[in-house]
Specification:
By secondary structure, the protein is of the alpha/beta class. It has one domain. The protein has 17 helices and eight strands. Strands 3-2-1-4-7-6-8-5 form an eight-stranded mixed beta sheet, with helices on both faces. Helix 4 links the parallel strand 1 and strand 2. The relative contact order is 0.16.
Length: 495
């Protein structure tokens, strides 16, 4: 499949698999609750037991990741990398795609690069706007280029044209345009492709001051660095004190999920802001321009191009981003739902994987099976677990509460016992979230620390409304062929 055609509808059955799985589960759960309640109860108990074990398993990895995270932040990575022979041959190409972002957000992102401990003359920045916002973008971009004139190796401005055939407007198509322009610059400067590390950031990303030093160190010391992407810990903390409780819980949940995956890098994909080698990008033909989930697809492109010999190297350093935020409470909740649904649209990778894995038999069979299973299982539990745990799990007892059965009578207590165990996860999450919070703003009183703990009581609601519902929505749309376009995450004006 080339980048000049839209990827949807080519394999309708494969597109339907995730949706069929989740709706079959819901329908069977309801039917068996009425016709075979004992079978329904057994299924629910087994599923909840599986989920409880998974929560405990998840917590172990999160705690280990947090410990690694703290230790990594304490290291002077610039000092370490500067001891490596010829370390300064490495250049950092930083891609900052943007659409209708305000000037201050753009400036903060560039300022954070300038203020890093790394040499500024090793940075090539590309700020990429969209034709649909051309005048506003160019006004901000030219002002920034003038302000940062002479600071970096190069500062390039690009404008991605609209209505290119076969493209889906969004971050992926903009990135590809920027990368094509970057190749012209790189070739003109005769820089070795294998000496360039590319960082693709959401434009509101503020990297840790040691980010590029740590990235260079990993690139220069790990095995086969061009066959790896480099994933930081994403913290949506720039405006965390200002956003609403459901948003805080959702973004912390995303951070904890990512931290646990970093401890199992053999199974993870890239997410949001991350880095990779320029050589890999050239080898795969750059980002695909006809999809929504470009951040995870670029990992799959490398994985397939190198016959399964591609991986994620965890960085255990943070990048700080804005949590989604609307003009008011209702607008913020709508924006959060759309963001979660866009992330859940990663279900679009399943047809792609199945097609490419059937063609490329050079990828070991066990790897192909593992990645397909992990993807299906992850999307399935994302959509079904909250519904089975908090809603459908109690249906057999509500429907047949008068039916004499020891199993039915004991099932609520069994479920409650497992819920109490899972509550440990909520408590640990609450404590970790406090440690990851930035400094409390002066306009927030001391009692806000208590608010930050008590907000976790909303977890079951956010788990369903901003977890299961967007995932069900995305997978159902894929199943019925109502494909999702790219939705730009709303960000409130930065003060």
């Amino acid at each position: 499949m080339g980048n000049n055609e839209l990827p949807y509808g080519k394999h309708r059955f494969w597109e339907m698999i995730p949706g069929i799985l989740i709706w079959s589960t819901f329908i069977l759960a309801v039917i068996t609750s009425f016709l075979a309640p004992q079978i329904a109860v057994i299924f629910i108990i087994v599923f909840d037991l599986y989920w409880t074990l998974r929560v405990l398993y998840f917590l172990i990895f999160v705690l280990f990741a947090y410990n690694k995270f703290k230790k990594t932040k304490e290291v002077d990575w610039y000092e370490r990398v500067s001891k490596i022979k010829n370390w300064d041959r490495i250049y950092h190409l930083i891609l900052l795609p943007t659409y209708k972002e305000e000037y201050q957000i753009l400036r903060d992102a560039i300022l954070s690069i300038q203020n890093s401990v790394y040499r500024n003359d090793k940075f090539i920045l590309i700020l990429g706007g969209e034709e649909g916002d051309k005048n506003n973008f160019l006004e901000s971009a030219e002002k920034l280029k003038k302000e940062f004139n002479g600071v970096f190796k190069d500062f390039i401005i690009t404008v991605h044209p609209k209505n290119i055939a076969g493209e889906i407007p969004g971050k992926g198509s903009n990135l590809k345009w920027m990368e094509q322009k970057a190749q012209e610059i790189i070739d003109s400067k005769n820089i070795n492709y294998k000496d360039i590390i590319v960082t693709a950031f959401d434009v509101d990303t503020i990297a840790h001051e040691q980010y590029y030093a740590r990235l260079s160190y990993l690139f220069l010391t790990c095995e086969n660095p061009t066959h790896a992407s480099y994933q930081p810990v994403v913290l949506y903390s720039n405006n965390i004190w200002r956003v609403q409780a459901p948003i805080r819980i959702s973004v912390f949940g995303t951070t904890f999920w990512l931290m646990s995956e970093l401890m199992r890098a053999d199974r993870m994909w890239t997410f949001s802001s991350h880095s990779m080698s320029w050589q890999m990008l050239v080898d795969v033909g750059f980002h695909e321009s006809n999809l929504v989930s470009e951040d995870s697809r670029i990992f799959l492109q490398g994985f397939i191009r190198y016959n399964g010999d591609y991986r994620v190297e965890p960085m255990f350093l943070p990048v700080y981003m804005d949590a989604v935020e609307g003009a008011d409470y209702v607008d913020s909740m709508k924006a959060l739902y759309k963001q979660q649904r866009r992330w859940a649209w990663g279900v679009e990778h399943l047809p792609y994987m199945l097609e490419k894995f059937m063609i490329n038999r050079s990828i070991p069979l066990w790897k192909r099976i593992k990645y397909v299973f992990n993807h299906i299982e992850g999307m399935y539990t994302w959509a079904t677990a909250p519904m089975l745990i908090f809603v459908l799990g109690y249906l057999p007892n509500l429907v047949l509460s008068d039916t004499p059965s020891a199993l039915l009578a004991s099932s609520p207590f069994t479920l409650e016992s497992m819920m109490r165990i899972a509550t440990i996860g909520v408590f640990v999450s609450a404590m970790l979230s406090l440690w990851l919070l930035p400094k409390r703003p002066k306009d927030k009183k001391q009692f806000w620390w208590l608010v930050m703990i008590l907000q976790w009581a909303l977890l079951p609601i956010t788990f369903i409304v901003f977890g299961a519902f967007p995932a069900i929505d995305a997978q159902t749309r894929m199943m019925i062929g109502k494909y999702l376009g790219f939705n730009v995450t709303k960000k409130h004006k930065r003060i």
